[in-house]
Specification:
Layout (H helix, E strand, L loop, with lengths): L3 H12 L3 H11 L6 H16 L7 H21 L3 H5 L12 H21 L2 H12 L4 H8 L3 H19 L22
Helix pairs in contact: 2-3, 3-4, 6-9, 7-8, 7-9, 8-9
C-alpha cells in the first residue's frame, strides 16, 4: 500500500491539472449539467483509492478510464427501477406520460437523420466529426489519431458541423468552402 503523502503529491502534480479537461469530458457525456461536479468528485475519490494500490503509469488514461466507467455505472443505476416503486404503481392511477413513446420515436428519427447527415460528409471530415463530437476527443488527440495538424482538425470540424446543421434543417448538407474572388477582366495580371 502506498503512503498517503505520496498519493497526495501525485494527485496534485498529475490529476488536478486534468481538472478542466475532465470537467469538459463530463459535460459532453452526461445529460444533467448539475451532476458534473459531484461526478468529478466521485471520480477523484475512485482515482485516489485506486492509487493506494499502485500509482498509474499514465495518469490521463487512468482518469478517463475511471470517468468513462463511472458514467456507465451511473447510467445503469439510473435505469434500474426499485421494487418499491413497482409495488406502488397500483396507487399511481393514470398519471403517466402518454407522449413518452412518441418522443422516443422522434428522438430515434432525429438520430437517424443526423447519422445520414454525417454519412454524407467527405471521409476525413466525417472522421474528424466522429472523433471530436461522438468520441469526445480533444482537438490535439484527434489530430494525433489522424496524423494531421490541429488546424486541419479545426477546419474540418467547422466545415463538417456547418454541413451537418444544414442537413438537419433540411438543406443539402454539402460542405461549403470559402470562395476566393477572381480578378476582374480590367485588372492587370502580374
Amino acid at each position: 500500500m502506498i503512503d498517503d503523502d505520496v498519493i497526495d503529491a501525485w494527485f496534485v502534480r498529475e490529476v488536478l491539472p486534468l481538472e478542466r479537461a475532465l470537467t469538459a469530458y463530463l459535460r459532453r457525456n452526461w445529460r444533467m449539467a448539475e451532476d458534473v461536479f459531484d461526478l468529478r468528485q466521485d471520480i477523484y475519490e475512485h482515482a485516489w483509492n485506486g492509487a493506494r494500490r499502485e500509482l498509474p503509469a499514465n495518469t490521463r488514461a487512468y482518469m478517463y478510464t475511471i470517468a468513462r466507467n463511472h458514467l456507465i455505472n451511473q447510467a445503469k443505476r439510473a435505469q434500474i427501477v426499485s421494487f418499491d416503486i413497482i409495488a406502488d404503481l397500483d396507487g399511481v392511477g393514470t398519471d403517466f406520460d402518454i407522449w413518452e413513446a412518441e418522443r422516443a420515436m422522434t428522438a430515434r428519427d432525429e438520430l437517424r437523420h443526423a447519422k445520414a447527415g454525417i454519412d454524407k460528409l467527405p471521409p476525413r471530415c466525417r472522421e474528424v466529426v466522429r472523433l471530436r463530437k461522438i468520441e469526445g476527443l480533444t482537438t490535439q488527440e484527434a489530430a494525433e489519431t489522424l496524423g494531421v495538424s490541429t488546424e486541419t482538425v479545426r477546419q474540418q470540424l467547422k466545415y463538417g458541423m456547418r454541413a451537418l446543421i444544414d442537413h438537419m434543417v433540411g438543406g443539402t448538407g454539402k460542405i461549403v468552402r470559402p470562395k476566393f474572388g477572381r480578378r476582374s477582366a480590367g485588372e492587370a495580371q502580374p
